[in-house]
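Hi R.,

As promised on Friday, here is the backbone we talked about, encoded as C-alpha cells. Could you run it through your design pipeline when you get a chance and send me back a sequence?
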C-alpha cells in the first residue's frame, strides 16, 4: 500500500523532471522574443550605452534614425535582394554583419546578423557605433538623410526623463 508515503510529496525523479522542465522554459524565455521598444525605454538604453553625443550625434538623432528604420522594433527585417537589413537600426549584411547569404559580406562588426534580431540591443548599439565611425558617418542610414538630417528631432526624446 501507500503506508509511510505522503501522496503530496514528489519523488526525487519527479522533482528533477519538474526542475528540468522549468530550466528549459527559462532558457527558451531567456532567448527573448523581439519586441517593439517604448520610445523612452529606447532613449534611456541608448543614453546609458553612450550614444548621446557619440561621434557628435545627438540622442534625438539616433532616436529619429531608429524610428524611421524600424519603428523601434528589435526584430525588424528587410530583404533588399542582394543584401538584408537587420534589427532596430536596420544594419546591412553587405558591410556590417554576416547572414551567410550575402556574397562578399565584409562583416565589419564581426557578428552574425541574427544577433541583431533579438531583444538584447547591446550588439546593435556596438555595431551602430562602428557604422557611424566609418567615413560615411550617419549617411549610411537612408532614414538619417531623408528624415532626420537638418530637421528638428527633439520630439523623439520629448517627454522622456533622461
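Update: got your reply. Pasting your designed sequence below so it's all in one thread:
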Amino acid at each position: 500500500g501507500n503506508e509511510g508515503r505522503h501522496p503530496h510529496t514528489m519523488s526525487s525523479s519527479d522533482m528533477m523532471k519538474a526542475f528540468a522542465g522549468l530550466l528549459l522554459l527559462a532558457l527558451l524565455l531567456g532567448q527573448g522574443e523581439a519586441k517593439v521598444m517604448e520610445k523612452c525605454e529606447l532613449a534611456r538604453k541608448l543614453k546609458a550605452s553612450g550614444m548621446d553625443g557619440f561621434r557628435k550625434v545627438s540622442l534625438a538623432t539616433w532616436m529619429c534614425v531608429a524610428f524611421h528604420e524600424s519603428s523601434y522594433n528589435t526584430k525588424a527585417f528587410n530583404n533588399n535582394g542582394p543584401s538584408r537589413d537587420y534589427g532596430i537600426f536596420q544594419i546591412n549584411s553587405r558591410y556590417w554583419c554576416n547572414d551567410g547569404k550575402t556574397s562578399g559580406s565584409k562583416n565589419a562588426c564581426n557578428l552574425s546578423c541574427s544577433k541583431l534580431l533579438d531583444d538584447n540591443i547591446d550588439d546593435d548599439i556596438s555595431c551602430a557605433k562602428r557604422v557611424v565611425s566609418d567615413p560615411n558617418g550617419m549617411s549610411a542610414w537612408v532614414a538619417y538623410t531623408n528624415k532626420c538630417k537638418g530637421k528638428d528631432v527633439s520630439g523623439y526624446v520629448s517627454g522622456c526623463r533622461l
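One thing I noticed while checking it: The helical segments are 12-30, 39-48, 59-70, 122-132, 142-148.

Thanks again,
M.
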